[in-house]
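Quick start: read one record
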Amino acid sequence: MSASASLNCPNCGAPTSADATRCAYCGSGLTAAPCPSCLGSMWLGAEYCPHCGARAIVPTETSDPALKCPGCNADMPRVQLGAIAMHRCASCDGAWLDPETFVQLCANQEERGAVMATFGADVAATRVSTGPVRYFRCPICQKTMNRSNFGHTSGIVIDTCKGHGAWFEHDELRGVLQFVASGALQHQASFDAAHPDRATVVLGANILGAPATGANANAMRVMLDVMSNDSASSLLHGFFTSLFG
């Protein structure tokens, strides 16, 4: 977090240091998150960004039917975070995203910022668990989902249903978005382009749990449409184009 930022506790309004983890006045925990507008650091729960003044996006429940959480079986309402809609479990902090939304989130920096501002951003990402492997059922079709190490190198194992979406346990979605924001996904695509004999499908069979056909192919095209206007992502554009060849 920038040391020049003027930051105040979102709970009591007291001034805080940029590297604080807890407010010295009220004791509230402090977690940094990127502003969805300028990507400057702000405290999770703050109403406005201290850098650009943009209002923080507040999750709102939609009128869509809730799904049963794959992790704890609690009701998982659909919430809207700016342009992104997902099902989120308040009991275990899990999140369910359909394929198109997940790919769109990976491709769009501003939308990633909005979601990370809700989930927090400065805590170490969840890595592969050394405990017993647990398989989850898709909340839509009830079939057992596939487990995938996101991007092959993130160390974050997510659960995917090839027809319906991806399930993220507590902290996994934030960890995945950190991995994407770090450029590691683009690095993996660059490696695959340079080593076609060892290529790994970063998004497609690996992430969505199925070949890039049907609904999943449409999700890939969402990624291509977003990335086609970003010259810095031209290599990734070519990588995803190859999935449809």
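Confidence is low (pLDDT under 50) at residues 121-126, 199-213, 222-245.
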